[in-house]
Amino acid sequence: MANSIMASSKPLIFLSSNQPNRIVQIPKFSKLPQIPKPLSSSSSDLRTQALSFSSATVKSLALIAAFAPPSMAEAMEKAQLFDFNLTLPIIVVEFLFLMFALDKVYYSPLGNFMDQRDASIKEKLASVKDTSAEVKELDEKAAAVMRAARAEIAAALNKMKKETQEALASLEKQKEETIRALDSQISALSEDIVKKVLPS
């Protein structure tokens, strides 16, 4: 690609140094000569009109032909796709230097940074896996503590139930005893009242 660009940058008009410098004087026209248009298409009319051109028209056509650049086909023949000259080794050296410089300046530090980041990520993942075992142990301990606490709460509730049942039973006994005591006192008082009210 680079060689084809370089080949296309060659001049189309080649000036050799061994030719003497010619000074060409271009005639100055106040008005450019006009080429007359043919009125009829017969070949005899065209010949007569071509012969009737003025000398100024012929001179201008000759000047145009003399200073015309070489055709594109000739230039393309001279410009090859690959020119194996001094530019090829220079381009190879430039490419190798650029490859070496980019490797040292850009790709090696970037590769080292990526390796360090990868290692730190792997280390963090390993530490997370290690902590997951610790988390499992802590979960098991928490579950054991919860089971022990539930057992203690269940035992305390059972104990409180027994104590409240015992307290209720003792209250029932006291109630019955007080009712009996009150009954005996009521009967004694009623007898006293009856004796006092009714003399016998």
Helix-strand pattern: HHHHH
Instruction: Supply the number of helical segments.
Output: 5
Beta-strand residue fraction? under 5%
Oligomer: single chain
Number of strands: 0
Helix content: over 70%
Main beta sheet strand tally, sense and closure: none
Distance between the termini: 153 Å
Class based on secondary structure composition and strand pairing = mainly alpha
The backbone outline, from C-alpha atoms, is: rod-shaped
Q: Low-confidence runs (pLDDT<50, min 5 residues)?
A: 1-15
Summarize the structure.
The chain is an all-alpha fold.
Can you tag this structure with a few keywords?
membrane, proton-transporting ATPase activity, rotational mechanism, 200 residues, ATP synthase subunit b', chloroplastic, 0% strand, mainly alpha, single chain, disordered N terminus, ATP_synth_b/b'su_bac/chlpt
Q: How would you describe this protein?
A:
The radius of gyration is 63 Å and the shape is rod-shaped. It is built from five helices and no strands. It has two domains: 93 residues, no CATH class; 106 residues. With 200 residues, the chain is an all-alpha fold. The termini are far apart. The N terminus is likely disordered.
Topology (SSEs and partners):
Blueprint: H1 2-8, H2 43-51, H3 55-66, H4 72-78, H5 87-197
